[in-house]
Design goal:
Ribosomal Protein L4, Chain: A; 6-stranded mixed sheet
Length: 206
């Protein structure tokens, strides 16, 4: 698959051939869903905690004698049905993380890239670098390229001036190629890859 390479200014910079093994697959929603769910589960903190009947600071003595009062049988005031008692089946601090095979993760990334390629939502830019690292200048370049909601993937290291200039532009994310992931690819409308990012991806899946 041949894709045109442009510069940030919007001028033609040649063509690049994208590997069909990475960008030419038939996207499967079930694999994408599994990888996104795995990513979001790893992010979830799981620090929510409610006090059960063993955690509340209240006496554990029997409230009143078992028989002869005419009332229901009760023991501890820590029971969930009483005001000030413990929470029944409340949330506890835990990890939401679950396992996903490496091969499925790698396949998910290929399918996400293929989904963007199939919808013609991939733009290849020669280099993510600005001579004048100003947000106003970068926003003008994005307007020329028609980028309003995009994920930009650079090489092994993203130019710091470019990253700072892009930081204040809404709906624009900038990541090095090591940080590329399925969730961020799918949540943005357009995927912008540098020439270095394509070379790194093809080397990674070789």
């Amino acid at each position: 698959m041949d894709v045109k390479i442009t510069t940030l200014a919007g001028t033609d910079a040649g063509k690049v051939s994208l590997s069909d093994e990475i960008f030419g697959l038939d996207p499967r929603e079930d694999i994408l869903q599994r990888v996104v769910r795995w990513q979001l589960a790893r992010r979830q903190q799981g620090t929510h905690q409610a006090k059960g009947r063993a955690d509340v600071a209240r006496t554990g003595a029997k409230m009143y004698k078992q028989k002869g009062t005419g009332r229901a049988r009760h023991h501890s005031a820590r029971a969930p049905q009483f005001r000030g008692g413990g929470k029944a089946h409340g949330p506890v601090a835990r990890s939401h993380e679950h396992d996903l095979p490496k091969k499925v993760r790698a396949l998910g990334l290929k399918h996400a890239l293929s989904a963007k390629a199939r919808s013609a939502s991939i733009i290849v830019i020669d280099e993510l670098k600005l001579a004048d690292a100003k947000t106003k200048a970068l926003a003008a370049n994005f307007a020329t390229l028609g980028l309003q909601n995009a994920l930009l993937i650079g090489g092994a290291e993203v130019d710091q001036g470019f990253a700072r200039a892009a930081r204040n532009i809404p709906n624009i994310d900038v990541l090095p190629v090591q940080g590329i992931n399925v969730y961020d690819i799918l949540r943005r409308g357009t995927l912008v890859l540098s020439r270095a990012a394509i070379e790194a991806l093809e080397e990674r899946f070789k």
